[in-house]
Each structure stands twice: as C-alpha cells, then as structure tokens.
Fold this protein.
Amino acid sequence: MGIIIKSSEEIAAMRKAGGIVARILQRLVSQIRPGMRTRELDNMCLEELSKYGAQSSFKGYRGFPAHICTSVNDEVVHGIPGERTLCEGDVVSIDVGVIYDGFQGDAAITVGVGEISPEARRLLKVTEDALLAGIAAAKDNARLGDVSAAIQRCVEAGGFSVVREYTGHGIGRDMHEEPQIPNFGTSGRGPLLRKGMTLAIEPMVNSGGWSTRLSDDQWTVTTADGSLSAHFEHTVAVTDGGPEILTMM
Ligand code: MG
C-alpha cells in the first residue's frame, strides 16, 4: 500500500482523535494510586470514550480483550488490564488508541505508582527524552533512519537498551500503516519523510538487555531478563513547520 500522505483536512481530523487520546491519558494518569487494579483504568477509559463518542482502537483488534494496554514493571507493551493490583514502587505504561470520525490516535506514557526508585525514574526520563529526540528528527525531507538513530542514541547514552522486536508505525485511518518505525537505525537511511506523513513514534526501553518474551496470554510482552521496561508514544504529523505532536497532553 505504501506510505499514505494526509491532506491538511485529514490531519485536522487526526488532531481531534489525538486530542481525545491525550485527555483520556491525562485522566487515567491522574487516577493512578497504589492498591488499584489495572481493570479500573480500563473501565475509566471506557467511560471517557463514551463521553467523547470515540472508540478504542485496541478492543477486538486481533481479539485483544480490553480498551487500553497496561504494562507493569518488566512488561514492555500489550499488557491486558485485569485483576493485577498496582503497588507502591511499580512503573506502569498506559497505551491508549482511539478511533474518532474515521481516524486514529495512539499514545502511551509510563508513570510511577507512588514513590519509585531513582533508577526507575531515570529509565522513564531517558525513554521520554528518546521519544522527544525521535520526534524532533521527524522533519520534511529527513529520513526515517534519522528518527530511529536519534532514539537509539538517546537510549544507549543513558545506558539502557532499545527493544528490537517491536516498532512504531504509520497511522491514519488504520492504526498500523506503513512505514514501520524501528527505535534503532542509521541516520540518512530509510524512506524519505514528507509533509503529510503521520507517524506513531514509540520507543520501548529496557533497563537490562533488549530481548523480550511473549507471555502465555499471547499478548503481554515482557523483558527476557526480568528487567524494568518503559514505553512512551505520540502520534506525530510531519508538517511544513516541523513535527506536530497530535497527542500532546
Ligand atoms: Mg502504537
């Protein structure tokens, strides 16, 4: 199918979907406390979705059973909200995808539950910084490899490792469009970025080694070595005026 270039009207529609994602994430993050079950976050998301007249991108996607992904501690991505109780010192990634008026928005944030260790705090900071570095490289006439390399550089300078088996993705009317966006790579390589491209950039970063394992539920991805993992994501449009974050909180 190739990379789909969006018109300014289509980007305006994606800005609306992205705005809903941002407001839902903000609400969920504000409610996180030790002792709550991850299912409560999923329920809150459903409430918010109906308020906005939006749908979850994830619910039913290849049979995914929930509206959001919640990935705790050594869980990298795609964790299923359920009976798990969040404990003081945990880190939890919340990934929200919505469909509104035919367009998708997708973003994720990782936050601490109560007080977290200095090393966990540093992991979150480096992962968020890596996302911002990747976004800054998403300019008209740049190469996709510039985005990947900027992320990898930031993560590895922080002493952490980039997950290899999962990537970001183009996004628009579909949640997953071309191109795949690896979080590692070489500047100056890969597809040319043009204005009108819309990208979900999402570094997944482990405090230990980069390899991952798929859990028995066939969804939850964990670090192979049990180390902590973090995940930040924004939906971004490449524009004349530089990268625009469509899911800005
Ligand atoms: Mg995504």
In short: The chain is about 30% helix and 25% strand. Residues 104 and 175 are 6 Å apart (CA to CA). The chain has a mean pLDDT of 98.
